[in-house]
Structures are given as structure tokens and as C-alpha cells.
Amino acid sequence: MTKLFNVYRVLALVVGVLLVVGTVGSVLKYLLEDGTSLQRLGDDLTPIWLIHGWIYIIYVVVTFLLAQKARWPFSQLFLMLVAGLVPGLIFWVERRVVERLRADHPELARS
What pTM was computed for the model? Predict the structure, then answer.
């Protein structure tokens, strides 16, 4: 379980960073004038969404397994899953998950 906990933490960080970078890329791509260097940068960052999507699927599986092992309610699992879709939220949720897991199951959250 300790390994699952550490994998969750890494995936949460990766998903969160990709989500923020993808969002910034989309803002640059769609809200700036065509042809500018920043607009082209936003266009070049478009593949980030594909990478985020694949890693998010892995994140969903790991999050589900972690929530099952910790015997958390569906509401906790739902919050953890939605956090991977809202820019910035996953960083806050990950901190709360770590705190809760360490409080509820210290044997599972050794790092």
C-alpha cells in the first residue's frame, strides 16, 4: 500500500502540472491573435492534452485502488477524481488526501 500511496502522490503532481500547462497553452492558443509567438507556443502545447488524458486514466485507476484500500466513501473518491480535471485543485486535494491517509491509516502512508 505504501507503494500505491507514493504512486498516487507522483501521479497527482504530474496530472496537476500537465493540466495547468495545458490550460495555459489553450489560453495562449485561443485568446491571442493568430501568428504571434505566444499563440504559436499555445498551439505547440496542444499535445499536452493527449499526454494529460492518458496519465489521467492511470491516475483514475490508482485513485480508485487507494480509496478502496483506505475504505473511503464515494464522495472522497469523487473529489479526488474531479481534482484531476480542474486546474490547480489537484494540488490542494493531494495535500488533504495525504493528511487524511496519514491520520486514518498511518501504516499505509509511510513515505
Answer: 0.89
